[in-house]
Write a structure and sequence with these properties.
Layout: H1 2-27, H2 42-56, E1 59-66, E2 69-76, H3 80-83, H4 85-88, E3 101-106, E4 109-114, E5 121-129, E6 132-146, E7 149-161, E8 165-174, E9 178-188
Antiparallel strand pairs: 1-2, 1-9, 3-4, 4-5, 5-6, 6-7, 7-8, 8-9
Length: 191
């Protein structure tokens, strides 16, 4: 009989955290899907573009430049989700950021500007024509300091023109390594 009580205690210790986790999860509001995204949904847009481009399988003239060493190749991108991942990472639709960006719209151009300079994504500019995205521009900036000295800083300029071109310009500073410059451009063949 003693082993039976001990088995129940062990089972309770093992199962209780799982049950508690399930209970806590069921009390959370549903934040999945497009339930109230306030800003342009970059993640969804570039996920959809990844699927579309994978089906099209276009030839891409890809140029990569790292600290002034340049290489250009014609390639077919097998994983567009990874290729456009840096754009998806700039998505600003997080519940905590609902009031963190100013939105302005004029002549089919919507601009999202960060109110707080500590946010990584500082600007997103979306140009639309007849409800179709014609251009996405993103500016990211992040910095880590210690005792007033910059340890790490990154600046990214991202551009995307559907069925035409994508570009990533990145300048990175690491205190112990100095500056590094990255440039990637993909010209998408429309044939």
């Amino acid at each position: 009989m003693h082993w039976c009580k001990r088995s129940y205690k062990i089972a309770l210790i093992l199962v209780a955290p799982v049950l508690l986790s399930c209970l806590v999860q069921s009390c959370k509001p549903n934040l999945s899907g497009n339930t109230g995204t306030k800003f342009f949904d970059l993640k969804k847009y570039f996920t959809d573009e990844s699927v579309r481009l994978k089906k099209l399988n276009p030839l891409v003239t890809k140029t990569a430049d790292y600290n002034a060493t340049t290489e250009t190749q014609k390639v077919r991108i097998s994983d567009w989700k990874t290729e456009l991942g840096i754009f998806m990472e700039s998505d600003i639709n997080k519940p905590a950021w609902k009031t963190s960006y100013r939105i302005s719209t004029s002549d089919g151009i919507t601009t999202y500007a960060a109110i707080d300079s500590a946010l990584k994504t500082q600007y997103i500019i979306i140009k639309r024509q007849n409800d179709k995205v014609k251009l996405v521009l993103i500016y990211n900036h992040s910095r880590t300091t210690l005792f007033g000295k910059v340890l790490y800083e990154t600046r990214e300029n991202l551009s995307y023109i559907p069925d035409s071109m994508y570009r990533v310009q990145k300048r990175q500073y690491v205190r112990t390594l100095g500056f590094k410059n990255y440039f990637i451009r993909g010209l998408i063949d429309q044939r």
